[in-house]
Amino acid sequence: MFIESPDLAAEPGIRHAFFTREGGVSTGIYASLNGGLGSADDPSAIAENRARMARHLAVEPESLISLYQVHSPDVEIITGPWPGERPKADAMVTTASGLALCASSADCGPILFCDSEARVIGAAHSGWKGAVSGVVASTVTAMEKLGARRERILAVLGPTISAAAYEVGPEFVERFKSENPTFTRFFTASERAAHAMFDLPAFIAFRAQEAGIGRFVDLALCTYGDEERFFSYRRTTHRGEADYGRLISAIVLE
């Protein structure tokens, strides 16, 4: 049902989980632990799935906090459950106990952050757009405002599409080259002419290094290649399916 990072598990006062697609009640293309509030799955199934995640993390279901993710660098500081609609952002940080900060994903990179000494945690959703626009740096800056120190921060990247499965066209490569010509190092040749394979995990790791994070860990789990455990937007697209489930990665202060 979930995967743990040994590095995060060793941090005092913190619980976390990178939930897989296993262990829920959803059916069909959403089978089975779909936590995506934005999916077209049966809302009652999503609610039960999220309640199971909340129980595992020892929090109330309403304390399983999710954002309306929009591939941005925007960060929210969380003090409690949302009183209304989810804000549009892609990262959040808190010093409050008993709140499970969630990143929803299905190929993009879910990143869990902590400075256990300062008791500050964060969660971010980073696809290529978020990685380019600076969601990692924004999260670290927001954590510092709450008392964290970037050199103490541990960040762990959960299940993410790997370079072996992420083929892109020439316009995608040009977008990165226009940002910084050295970014071409994150691309390798594809079997298709004028196409390339993009290493999103390596690019996120580079952004973490740039931000001065003390430790960055990539669990090296490919969403596309492991259908039994992970949802994948790209796999769904290749099959022409109508929708896809979302994985939930969450961290909470005890």
Structure explained in plain terms:
- The protein contains seven helices and 14 strands.
- The protein has 254 residues and is of the alpha+beta class.
- The chain has one domain (2-159, 215-253): CNF1/YfiH-like putative cysteine hydrolases.
- The strands form three sheets. A six-stranded mixed beta sheet has the order 4-5-8-7-9-13.
- It is globular and about 50 Å long.
- The chain starts with a strand and ends with a strand.
- The relative contact order is 0.21.
- The model has no long low-confidence stretch (mean pLDDT 97).
Features:
25% helix; 6-stranded mixed sheet; single chain; alpha+beta; 254 residues; 5-stranded mixed sheet; globular; CNF1/YfiH-like putative cysteine hydrolases
Order of helices and strands: EHEHEEEEEEHHEEHEEHEHE
Structural classification: alpha+beta
Poorly predicted regions are none
Number of domains: 1
Strand content: 15-25%
Give the end-to-end Cα distance, rounded to a whole number of Å. Answer: 21 Å
Strand order of the largest sheet: 4-5-8-7-9-13
- Count every beta strand, where a strand is a DSSP E run of 2 or more residues: 14
**Portion of residues within helices:** 25-40%
Tally of separate helices: 7
CATH architecture assignment name = 4-Layer Sandwich
Task: Give a quick account of the main beta sheet: strands, pairing sense, barrel closure.
Answer: 6 strands, mixed
CATH topology: the name is CNF1/YfiH-like putative cysteine hydrolases
Please report the first level of CATH classification, the CATH class. Alpha Beta
Inertia-based shape = globular
Mean pLDDT: 97
- Taking all Cα atoms into account, the compactness measure Rg is 17 Å
CATH homologous superfamily descriptor: CNF1/YfiH-like putative cysteine hydrolases
